[in-house]
Amino acid sequence: MAGLRRDHNGITRWQNDCAVQTFAEITGASYEEAAEVLKEHGFRPLSGTPTDSTRAAFESAGFKVIEMTRQLKLDEALKLSVNGRTFFVSGYKGKKGHAWSLVDGTANRAYQPPFRYQLFEVA
Q1: Domains of the chain from N-terminus onward
Q2: How far apart are CA 52 and CA 76, in angstroms?
Q3: Across the chain, what does the average pLDDT equal?
């Protein structure tokens, strides 16, 4: 009821925290730091975080966020992430949304197709 869960390591995390995890993976912030930043920009446990709020959180931390949806496909962005570029993806299956990161050639917690998405580079 509090919106908490335990991850596979037994650590307490928020429910629907994909944007928090994405922020932490890209910025190197701790989970707790990432959760605080995202809460300031619209993260609500049990409800998640809108894409615009995730983008605003990155920008408030001094990052430049560029929408790349029409310029790159996901597989191209994943290959570019091997060379140090970082991306976050907001994917949608029906009304359900999910955020994940593309960092160091790895797609962390990605949706499995089919889905619609928006792709953002974080620099």
Answers
A1: 12-122 (3.90.70)
A2: 23
A3: 91
Give the residue carrying structure tokens 């919106």.
3
* Euclidean distance between CA atoms 59 and 75, whole angstroms: 25
Nearest to 26 by CA among 57, 68, 67: 57
Q: Which of 61, 49, 113, 114 is nearest to 86 (CA)?
A: 61
Q: Residue-wise over 18-39: b if at least 16 C-beta within 10 A, else e? A: bbbbbbbbbbebebeebbebbb
Query: Between helices 51-60 and 31-40, what is the axis angle to 10°?
Result: 110
The Cα-based distances of 89 to 8, 46, 60, 74, 116 in angstroms read: 23, 20, 18, 9, 10
Prediction pTM value: 0.89
